[in-house]
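question for whoever is on the cluster today: can someone run the full assembly for these? two chains, 328 residues total. i dont have access anymore since they changed the login thing
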Amino acid sequence: MISGAPSPAAKTAARQEPRPVIVFEVAGRALAIPSADVLEIRSTDSLAGEAAAFEPAEFPWIRHTIEREGTLHYVVNLGALFGLARTRPALVLFLRAAHCALLVDRIERMDAISWLFALPSAFQGTERRWYLGLALFEESVVPMLNARGIVPAEHLARLDAQTAQSLSGAVPA
Amino acid sequence: MSAALEAVEKAYVLLRLGERQFAVPAEDVEELASAGRLERIPHTTPQIAGVIVRRKRVLAVRDVARTLTGRSLPLHRFYLVVRQPYGAATESEAIPVTGDCELLSGVVALPPGEHDPGYVAGWIDLAGEQILVLDLSQIAADAPGPAPRPAEMRA
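^ ran it for u. tokens below:
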């Protein structure tokens, strides 16, 4: 300990009502998302006949679309988006907040958190919109995904424009 | 944390990154902590290796060794926890360091050279060895590249 140094800044975490979260894994990394932001979880096998190829050059982590209850969802390969090792995702999480779905390897558990740490300001990249903050489970730090930040509204608008152009008739009215 | 040091006596913490020693103003240093578990989270920010949990806080780990020496430390025994300014506030960050740190008091630093990168706050003469004083607020902003040697400063 360096003696005589001033006390550290007090900012730590924001306390909130306990909220349920889904902890899942992508390429060996634990990630979490508020349960309320997930509409449905399905296996990739069950979607085999429903996914349509769609490969926008601007968003290489999106390779497919899936129509769910009349709404087209862009399927985001989280591992590719995050630059992680390639895996074979087994599950798809359909999001409530944005018409996209996330490919993940497996669900680790359901949990609840009362505290969410702010992402340290040292992080200055796109992760600032990817995450709501960092959750602490025992001694493990798990990023909490921001369902609206994985594919932000302006990107969705561009994707919608491309699908309207390339998949004429496939986009719901 | 000013880019140019005033010619007054100050205290500095001497840290080692691999084979090379650097110094930071002691007023920017919070503590020296043993190397805990580094948590890697997906991100796109250069220099940031991950986070650690320290005293119920989540601290970013800034790998300055890669910026200053060209490669990350293969092994590190400690984290030097420092304060970084972000706007009007400061946040603590952890810097992996090779070994123990040393506190130097009553030191007058020389100003940075004309062509030194912005993260060079000055130089300390320690028994004939020139030690680069880091301006931690600038190290994140400067382009990666080996830190200048004292001879380069004088050139």
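summary bc i know u wont read the tokens: The interface with chain A takes residues 13, 26-27, 29-32, 37, 39-45, 48, 51, 53, 55-60, 62, 81, 83-84, 86, 89-93, 101, 103, 140 of chain B (CB under 8 Å). Chain B has a mean pLDDT of 87.
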